Amino acid sequence: MTSMTKYDILQKYYGYYSFREGQEVLIDQILQGKDVLGIMPTGAGKSVCYQVPALLLPGITLVISPLISLMKDQVQSLNQAGVHAAYINSSLSENQIAKALTLAGQGQYKIIYVAPERLETERFLHFAQSVDISMVAVDEAHCISQWGQDFRPSYLNIVQFVRRLPKRPILSAFTATATGEVKDDIICVLGLDNPETLVTGFDRQNLFFSVEHAKSRTRYLQHYVADHDKESGIIYCATRKNVEKVYETLLKEGIAVTKYHAGLTNEERRQNQDDFIYDRKSVIVATNAFGMGIDKSNVRYVLHYNMPQSMENYYQEAGRAGRDGEPSDCVLLYSAQDIMINRFLLENKEVNPNFTEEEYRTIRERDEKRLQTMNFYCNTKECLRTYILRYFGEESRGACGKCGNCQKHYVEKDMTSEARQVIQCLDDLDERYGINVVVGTLLGGKSAKLREYRVERYPSYGTLHKFREQEIKDLIGQMMQEGYLRQTQDKYALLQTTGKAQDIMDGICTVTVKMEPRSSRIIEEDDRIKGTGKRRSDILNTRGLEFFDILRGLRMSIAREESLPPYLVFSDKTLVDMCVRLPMNREEMMEVNGMGAFKYEKYGGRFLECIREHTGGIREKFYFGELSEVLGKGKKR
Ligand code: ADP
Ligand code: ZN
User: Fold this and answer.
1) Which residues share a beta bridge with 197?
2) CA 403 to ligand 2 center in whole angstroms
3) Looking at the domain 536-631, which fold is it?
4) Domain ranges of the chain
């Protein structure tokens, strides 16, 4: 084993030919005996960072992981690749644990996943002291920080445990949480020794973000799901009631759909979750109770039927799409009512009864602020990716060109003088009304409510009558984002000016707003629209897609025989690559992305047979365009 290089390992066990951004740096440092801290977003490939060195280091690697379901998934995935690995957690009986430890003591496993609670037990400690532990890898390392939302006291055991080992192992830590406090905590509390710290960007390039202001969300959803037939997707709703409603609608449409929320029994939840993971149902409609510890890599879309309560929630939930790095969609269906639903949920959220009035108010204000940020996301016209990354503290690299907003064609308009009218109007109204009255006044509206308030007596009445309602709302939204206006943090949400508004009146600042063009000519003239948000399988032509389905069928039968989730047999990417290359022999099959040696031994023959049978040995072209383009950069090594 020691004569193998990291590249050999990557190819043999994972079937990949090159490392991703950041992976190689961390692996090299570990192999030189250094501690490391890797901060990478979900789906970036953290596992490879510790698994590859684990297979090259002389002794055993212990991986500390908080989630039982994830451990099982990871171990299954390693076993699938031909690596001997095991997990030890409370889902095993004492007997099973004893057996696993005996085998481990005999050197059966290079990689052992353990729950942090185990580290305290005498039996486990005894075992660990009697073998050679090369590395302790801490997954979800932010759980050690009291600052984070997921603090787990049991993570503190790791420190004690490491101290009691006869030889200090290499420590490696991984997380997707990047705040400075958490990072410092991990280094300090875990006692990492001058670690190489690598932070890859938070951007998930394969995710296509968009916000849809659909007239009927239900109709949008029906179309979307029908259009993405056979693909795995998650639909998040804010409430159980909505979950039931959306579930029923899709069920009537004949979609293979299941559901998940806290109102179901444990058994129902487990069953439904498995149906989704094992691809027996392609869509799951769920509340945010669903997703923790779900490692399903081929989720092709995450739709939000309701707006989540914060960007943190949104990015985490949406981020469950495309863990395999393949293009996937994150669509948020916006409706203005959602802000009300969320306010209601926040107001009725369970709070610690020991909180003082003051503390409670602080929490409410923070919640409200997060909700506003989320609302801005839904209404912004700037690049959505830029908006997200800025929120998470990353500098913008300019518009991404591949999100819903970048692909819409807005025109920028200087609206400084209109902004002055808005400020004037707020002054007229004494800042005692919400946005709808303000907009109504500016438009010169005649609704009963406006008449009752007698707004026509103000000088600002009707001054913006040439504009559309949405345009004025966009202007106000822009002014809020730039801090000239704010809404009060109560249920009345009164629209008010801030001190900064004077700068507009004084002509120090200008306000520009992006608008939907009134004529569609601009769009026709501009053919730069880039087709992103596409599927890997979009490169296949009709015949290719048919063949892709045949391969998926074979994958499904194998998965059933072995009681494995299909994505642990082969990823979608691997199957698409097979359709393109149509390998006819072992050598060609080994070129396929994701085809490791062990997997070839297990399944290669059946797939070769299937390909030969269906093509008659003739290599038909199952894709659009040129082969070199389709294969992208190609195989490096
Ligand atoms: P994370 O733990 O960071 O969320 P994973 O370790 O689960 O991410 O990896 C996400 C996906 O990326 C997995 O399907 C994994 O096999 C794949 N992957 C990891 N490294 C590479 C690589 N170098 N080339 C291609 N795919 C990779
Ligand atoms: Zn963009």
Assistant:
1) 37
2) 4
3) DNA polymerase; domain 1 (1.10.150)
4) 6-199, 207-391, 411-515, 536-631
Cα 401 to averaged position of ligand 2 atoms, centre (Å): 5
Q: Which of 48, 298, 299 to probe ligand 1 with, by most ligand atoms within 8 A of CB?
A: 48
Of 284, 323, 278, which is closest to residue 305 (Cα–Cα)?
284
Output the ligand 1 site: residues, CB below 6 A.
16, 19-20, 23, 40, 42-48, 297, 323-325
As a CATH number, domain 207-391 is 3.40.50.300
- d(CA 128, CA 120) in angstroms, rounded, equals 11
In this prediction, residue 632 carries a pLDDT of 57
Q: Cα-flanking dihedrals φ and ψ of residue 33, to 5°? A: 90, 10
Domain at 411-515: CATH code: 1.10.10.10
Q: What are phi and psi of 457, to 5 degrees?
A: -80, -10
Alpha helices in 39-156 (DSSP H): 46-56, 68-81, 94-105, 122-130
Confidence at residue 569, expressed as pLDDT on a 0 to 100 scale: 94
What residues in the chain have per-residue pLDDT under 70? 1-2, 147-149, 178, 293, 351-352, 516-537, 632-637
- Same-fold call for 411-515 versus 536-631: no
CA max distance for the chain: 89
What stretch of H or E contains 524?
Answer: helix 521-525
* pTM score: 0.72
Asked if 132 and 61 touch (Cβ cutoff 8 Å), the reply is: no
Q: Do residues 218 and 74 lie in contact, with contact meaning Cβ atoms separated by under 8 Å? A: no
How far is the centre of ligand 1, averaged over its atoms, from the C-alpha of 21 (Å)?
Answer: 11
Contacts of 544 (CB under 8 A, 6+ apart): 579, 580, 622, 623
Contact (CB, 8 A) for 135 and 53: yes
Question: Tell me: domain 6-199, CATH 3.40.50.300, correct?
Answer: yes
Of 238, 436, 245, 432, nearest to 344 by C-alpha is: 238
> DSSP label at 329?
E
The C-alpha atoms of residue 606 and residue 537 are separated, in whole angstroms, by 22
Based on the number of CB atoms within 10 Å of its own CB, is 286 exposed (0-12), middle (13-18) or buried (19 or more)?
buried
